[in-house]
Amino acid sequence: MFETNAVSSGCAGRVDRNACDACRARPLSVCASIDEADLDRLDGLAQHLSLQAGEALTRADDPADHVFNITSGSVRVYKLLPDGRRQITGFLFAGDFLGLATGDTYVFSAEAIEPVTACRFRKSDYRRLIRETPALETTLLDRATHELAAAQNQMLLLGRKTALERVSTFLLELPAHDPARRGPDGRVHLPMTRAEIADYLGLTIETVSRVFTRLKTRGVIRLLSLTALQIENPEALLALAEGEG
Amino acid sequence: MFETNAVSSGCAGRVDRNACDACRARPLSVCASIDEADLDRLDGLAQHLSLQAGEALTRADDPADHVFNITSGSVRVYKLLPDGRRQITGFLFAGDFLGLATGDTYVFSAEAIEPVTACRFRKSDYRRLIRETPALETTLLDRATHELAAAQNQMLLLGRKTALERVSTFLLELPAHDPARRGPDGRVHLPMTRAEIADYLGLTIETVSRVFTRLKTRGVIRLLSLTALQIENPEALLALAEGEG
DNA sequence: CGCAGCCTTGACCATTATCAACGCTGGTGG
DNA sequence: CCACCAGCGTTGATAATGGTCAAGGCTGCG
Question: Which residues pair with B97 in a beta bridge?
């Protein structure tokens, strides 16, 4: 299931170029406010992974043995109902953390949606590290707190926003969450399929497609390809996202 | 806005009867795994609050000056859209923590839905306490992680479950989250109105009411009063909650 | 006793899901 | 080099779930 990458340093975000770029780009990344000695210890314990699209980092109900730090690519985190309905609870990008959940099995699944590099730590190592590295714990608490705020926003979206508002919000938040998704002039790269966007926004692929068309017709966005679009009118998009359109 | 309670001890959950009961009932309560000396310091810094139904603990966009620990009663946490649509992101009960969010303004509002007692700490004190009390930080990280898992479940509910599944899930999780809501023989006390249940589940009051009626007709629940009901068939309710009914 | 607030029920409506057909695109193999 | 195919995306027609609007009932309190 896992392919271990030969490159063996920089997992904590200090040496490896990818990871470090991610760190600098993200105010709350794991390596922020952790000193050199601690980073060295982290690096020593890290296992390096390289995954193809579709490969899993975690599976719901499997033993929760590891925690992960994404260093490049994108990951979908989701939960399923018994009949197969899927809710994607978040997308993860370079710098994001995965697997903090307490309990001894994962309660969600996580899979690469494009080639991903990540590093992972055994949960036992991770717990020891946390005990010995207060700065790490502070950083993780900060991150968890941020994720909680993001989760509240997503609940507002799923519970109370219309399809048009959901898609508009998504198009604004994707580049805000991951600078690597953001090109110049409001250009946005979408690594995920319509099905994944739909399962993230609590809609169907048809509805997502229709809303894209509506936004295009209104001149708010321009579709450059299936995986790239340009925001032509950010103000209008923001107004739509908050229900003022 | 705040009425300070005269009772001046036990806010950290050690002395005051209410709070301590709550602590013992909840494996992850704030006082768990914190030693006596630390608890004493916590108590020394706590301000004690007593709120009537409808009074606010926090308001979205106000300066985030305090963190709170609920010691009795119930609280609604919610976000609003500009046009007034409301999403309740969670209900808090005795033992729950509030206000961990980073940033210098609150991003949610929190109000008592029945008489509430709580204690609060200045954010500056709280930050210092965290630095000086690793056990507190560990506990808070655990709690945040649990809340994150709960938030993912709620996203699954809001994004993919039907009205019947949502209400069934709610009736099962309310007593699971707060033992004080659970009477004997599957009896459940609902401190919140239909409007609050609706805004928590992403539905309207009419739909919530109709689902209650359907569950009643099917013999799954029995309504004892507006604020109390009895689960007659927990297995059926569980099946409905997961979409197998 | 009467009123206010909340809840329930009913009729109708709208948004979004479902079902179906078609189109585009990229990869593969003749 | 082109044709075909598979997978994904778009568009259209229809259906259903839940929302909206409206009326009436219950309950607790003054």
Answer: B69
- CATH code of A17-155, in short, is 2.60.120.10
Among B146, B151, B153, the residue with its CB nearest the CB of A102 is B146
| Of the partner residues B87, B103, B144, the one whose CB lies closest to the CB of residue A156 | B87
Q: Which of residues 153-172 of A touch strand C (CB under 7 A)?
A: 162-164
| Contact state of A152 with B107 under an 8 Å Cβ cutoff | yes
Contact call for residues A106 and A120 (beta carbons, < 8 A): no
Is a pLDDT exceeding 50 seen at residue B132? yes
When pLDDT is cut at 50, 70 and 90, the band that residue A14 belongs to is very low
3-state DSSP of chain A? CCCECCCCCCCCCCCCHHHHHHHHHCCCCCCCCCCHHHHHHHHHHCEEEEECCCCEEECCCCECCEEEEEEECCEEEEEECCCCCEEEEEEECCCCEECCCCCCECCCEEEECCCEEEEEEEHHHHHHHHHHCHHHHHHHHHHHHHHHHHHHHHHHHHHHCCHHHHHHHHHHHHHHHCHHHECHHHEEECCCCHHHHHHHHCCCHHHHHHHHHHHHHCCCEEEEECCEEEECCHHHHHHHHCCCC
- Find the Å distance, CA of residue B237 to C1' of nucleotide D13: 36
Please judge whether A134 and B138 are an interchain contact, meaning their C-beta atoms are less than 8 angstroms apart: no
**Inter-chain CB pairs, A–B, below 8 Å:** 135
Q: In angstroms, rounded to a whole number, what is the distance separating the alpha carbons of residues A205 and A194?
A: 6
**Whole-number mean pLDDT of chain A?**
86
Q: A162-241 — its CATH code?
A: 1.10.10.10
With an 8 Å Cβ cutoff, are A148 and B101 in contact? Answer: yes
Q: What is the mean pLDDT of residues B153-173?
A: 98
Q: Which residues in A lie closer than 8 A to residue B138 (C-beta atoms)? A: 130, 137
**Range(s) within chain A of domains with CATH label 2.60.120.10:** 17-155
pTM given for the model? 0.90
Task: Locate CATH 1.10.10.10 in chain B.
Answer: 162-241
Q: Residue written as tokens 């109105």?
A: B193
